[in-house]
């Protein structure tokens, strides 16, 4: 009996810890992205709650159905993209959320599309992701000059945690920043996590300009790494089911302010690997535990969104930047891995990171276009 309980407790604990790590390590990025897209505090709280419920339902249903640790999360790169994209309104962003979700469904339903995604050069997807994350990763630098007495201790804490407890570094600085923000009295008011419906705007250009990069950055930055995590731990990833299910749920949750749901990547390693127990046949419990944790966290959405408020405090933005440095390093490494495509990677990164908007189209899509042109011109044909 004791052994059986131990076999359940370890994967369950891994699911809870992995979910809390992912939540607190990226919630500031999510709320900053929704705010930049034009969401009010109430709409951001609604989006956070909807995402928690969506991830919870996906994790529980797929893990129970397939008996594998299928853990889902929100698209942190997608949330970061909202800061660079500058949509005309939150209604435009909601339309882009729906489009990106439907594109995910199509990718999973049509095998040819999945193969096409696999063929997108890492130089472009890595450059896109690095450019999207750049504004966040620069925030600690800017704020260290403005309020060094607040930010530098945060940086020091992040460095120490990165050395001795890497998985706790991101969530640790986010929680510390939120605590300091509350103590300063600069947090927003606590809100009820009530559903707020936002109709998609009639803005085809804006929706496509944001929806396509959102789909690509989620696919490259979350879905494919999430599939790789399952493969690395000797599970057959339910690729098509995961893409169709997460895409459909994302499209349904979008009017409530929810950005994309997808397979967990970084925190997925906690819930899928050895941390979830030696018995691989019991690790599916971590997926169920993750889903249950998300459902509980949905009730806290109003509190968390209220703490951040309509305008995320500078200290929280700085903490989010520190938490994303690891993801930024990974994106850069992926972009410049092949010497022959480094110019295209640099062009993509620079255009996306510039934050320019031309003809109502944000820098993310222009970065992909510019990088594609650079790749076509600079790549030598055999």
Strand content: under 5%
* Integer average pLDDT: 85
Query: Which percent bin holds the helix content?
Result: over 70%
Instruction: Please give the domain count.
Output: 1
Per DSSP E runs of 2 or more residues, the count of β-strands stands at 2
The major pleated sheet works out as: 2 strands, antiparallel
C-alpha Rg (nearest Å): 20 Å
Tally of helical runs: 17
In spatial order, strands of the major sheet run: 1-2
Low-confidence stretches: none
Structural class category: mainly alpha
Cα separation of the termini? 64 Å
Shape: globular
List the secondary-structure elements in sequence, H or E: HHEHHHHHHHHEHHHHHHH
Keywords:
about 375 residues; mainly alpha; two-stranded antiparallel sheet; 17 helices; 2 strands
Short description:
The chain is an all-alpha fold.
Architecture overview:
With 382 residues, this protein is mostly helical. The protein has one domain. Helix content is 74%, strand content 2%. The protein has a two-stranded antiparallel ribbon. Helix 3 packs across helix 6 (122-146), helix 7 packs parallel to helix 14 and helix 8 (166-184) runs antiparallel to helix 14 (314-323). The N and C termini lie far apart (64 Å). The mean pLDDT is 85.
């Amino acid at each position: 009996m004791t052994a059986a309980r131990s076999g359940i407790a370890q994967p369950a604990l891994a699911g809870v810890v992995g979910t809390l790590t992912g939540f607190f390590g990226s919630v500031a990025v999510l709320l900053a992205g929704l705010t930049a897209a034009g969401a009010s505090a109430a709409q951001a709280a609604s989006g956070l709650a909807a995402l928690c419920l969506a991830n919870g339902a996906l994790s529980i249903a797929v893990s129970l159905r397939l008996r594998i640790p299928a853990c889902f999360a929100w698209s942190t790169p997608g949330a970061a993209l909202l800061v660079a994209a500058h949509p005309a309104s939150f209604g435009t962003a909601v339309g882009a959320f729906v489009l990106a979700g439907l594109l995910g469904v199509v990718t999973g339903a049509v095998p040819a599309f999945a193969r096409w995604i696999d063929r997108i050069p890492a130089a472009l997807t890595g450059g896109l992701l690095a450019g999207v994350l750049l504004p966040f990763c620069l925030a600690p630098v800017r704020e260290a000059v403005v309020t060094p007495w607040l930010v530098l201790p945060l940086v020091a804490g992040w460095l120490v945690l990165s050395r001795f407890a890497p998985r706790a570094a991101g969530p640790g600085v986010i929680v510390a920043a939120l605590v300091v923000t509350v103590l300063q009295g600069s947090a927003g008011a606590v809100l009820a996590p009530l559903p707020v419906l936002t109709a998609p705007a009639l803005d085809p250009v804006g929706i496509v300009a944001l929806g396509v990069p959102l789909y690509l950055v989620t696919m490259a930055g979350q879905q494919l790494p999430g599939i790789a995590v399952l493969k690395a731990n000797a599970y057959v990833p339910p690729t098509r089911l995961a893409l169709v299910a997460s895409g459909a749920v994302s499209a349904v949750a979008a009017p409530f302010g929810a950005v994309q749901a997808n397979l967990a990547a970084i925190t997925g390693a906690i819930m899928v690997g050895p941390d979830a127990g030696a018995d691989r046949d019991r690790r599916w419990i971590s997926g169920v535990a993750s889903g249950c944790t998300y459902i509980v966290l949905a009730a806290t959405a109003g509190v968390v969104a209220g703490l951040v408020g309509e305008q995320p405090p500078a200290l929280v933005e700085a903490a989010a930047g520190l938490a994303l440095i690891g993801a930024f390093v990974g994106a850069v490494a992926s972009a410049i891995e092949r010497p022959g495509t480094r110019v295209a990677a640099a062009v993509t990164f620079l255009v996306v990171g510039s934050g320019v908007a031309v003809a109502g189209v944000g820098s993310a899509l222009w970065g992909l276009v510019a990088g594609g042109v650079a790749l076509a011109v600079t790549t030598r044909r055999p």
